[in-house]
Amino acid sequence: MTFESIIGQERAIRLLSRMLQNGRLAHALLFTGIDGSGRQTTAKALAMALNCANPVGVSACGVCRSCQKVISGNHPDVIIVRPSGAFIKIDQARALRKHLRFAPLERGRRVIIVNDAQTMNAEASNAMLKILEEPPNDTHIVLTASQTTDLLPTIVSRCQNIHFRPIPVAEIADVLVAQGNLNQDTAIALAILAKGSLGRVLSADAKKWMAWREQFLGRVGSVSREPIQELFVFAEALAHDKANLEDALDMMTTWFRDVLMCKFQPEKVLNGDFMESIQGASREFSVDEILEKMAAVFAAQSAILKRANPRLALEVMMLCLRLGNARGDSLHGEAPVGLEG
Ligand SMILES: [Zn+2]
Q1: The whole model's pTM is what?
Q2: What fold is seen in the domain 205-332?
Q3: Which residue, 73, 90, 143, 183, has fewest beta-carbon neighbours within 10 Å?
Q4: How many angstroms separate the alpha carbon of residue 79 from the centre of ligand 1?
Q5: What residues does each domain of the chain span?
Q6: Which helix or strand (DSSP H or E) is residue 184 part of?
Q7: 172-186 burial, b if ≥16 CB within 10 A, otherwise e?
Q8: pLDDT tens digits along 12-57
Q9: Could you tell me the distance, in angstroms and rounded to a whole number, from the CA of residue 52 to the centre of ligand 1?
Q10: Which of 235, 228, 233 minimizes the C-alpha distance to 334?
């Protein structure tokens, strides 16, 4: 949990390191970025660095007593505030203000980490603002939120904002491979679905998820050959599978992206373990047809985001995937023209 171990956030770490080197670390920091991009880990790494007995440069050693206390959540001067239920409430902010009246218990610096600061309700936000207006000496406050617009502008203006980018697919895949148990193809497939959040994949049940993916992509590969009635059943099942629906549509998008890519740069196919069926579809469809199918998936994603009836949106999508343009002749379940090569 040292700065060196943070994945994919070189810029944020560089900024923090420079502030530490120059002795100019702001009293109030705001880490913005998606969940799982490393904001909370970095906040803890910063707390460790500020209290470490044997720092290496500006980074914590990770092994001294102080570092161990931060890692185990037992450091008396590193306080983490989390939502209690859906919100961070006024009582929590009041307790924090009370606590800050006393000097730190150990010799280093006190660090208050407020996770999901956007969940502070109006009263808690106002109490936090008072803390930020007069931060005690030797205390640093780190707020984490998705984006600055989630917070009161008066809070944002008192903090130095550091943005955490979504972590690139390749870097997430490297972590998954380094952890063992996953081969490169599987790691990339999982990393794509992470959408920039390492936290998201690390908390996923990789085995269960891979089994689901295999079954799902197998089905996607055969959509153009299945009878319409079967596809409506598929659409209905997907619409009911709310936990996986978003991932399923994302996966379809990358699958058709791969089908297209296979025509030009097959080495850039992401779902490498499905190469055979991707190659088949790539031969079967023209570029225009593939783009049409991708557009159909995008349209379904967008309609569902706008709270359209998912089943209806998915049925329309299936029809477009199955028939494409002017393929009325295949309504009765025969293979579409050109399938036989
Ligand atoms: Zn240390």
Answers
A1: 0.78
A2: Zinc Finger, Delta Prime; domain 3 (1.20.272)
A3: 73
A4: 17
A5: 3-163, 205-332
A6: helix 184-194
A7: bbbbbbeeeebeebb
A8: 999 999 999 999 999 999 999 999 999 999 999 999 999 999 999 9
A9: 4
A10: 228
What is the Å distance from ligand 1's center to 120 Cα? 32
Torsion angles phi and psi, residue 144, rounded to 5: -120, 140
| 54 CA to centre of ligand 1 in angstroms | 5
Let me know if domain 3-163 sits in CATH 3.40.50.300.
yes
- Angle, alpha carbons 229-234-237 (nearest 5°): 130
**pLDDT digits 0-9 by tens, 218-244:** 999 999 889 999 999 999 999 999 888
3-state secondary structure 154-166: HHHCCCEEEECCC
Centre of ligand 1 to C-alpha 339, Å, is 64
> Could you identify the residue written with the tokens 């100019």?
24
What's the CA-to-centroid distance between 193 and ligand 1, angstroms?
A: 35
Q: Please give the distance, rounded to the nearest whole angstrom, from the Cα atom of residue 160 to the centre of ligand 1.
A: 25
Cα separation, 38 vs 54, in Å, equals 24
Compute the residue count for the chain. Answer: 341
Gap from CA of 185 to ligand 1 centroid (Å): 37
- Residue 133's CB is within 10 A of a number of other CB atoms, namely 10
Helix (H) or strand (E) holding 28: strand 28-32
Residue 2 CA to ligand 1 centre (angstroms) = 9
* Domains 3-163 and 205-332 belong to one CATH topology: no
Q: How far is the CA of 23 from the centre of ligand 1 (A)?
A: 18
Dihedral sign for Cα 296, 197, 153, 85, please. positive
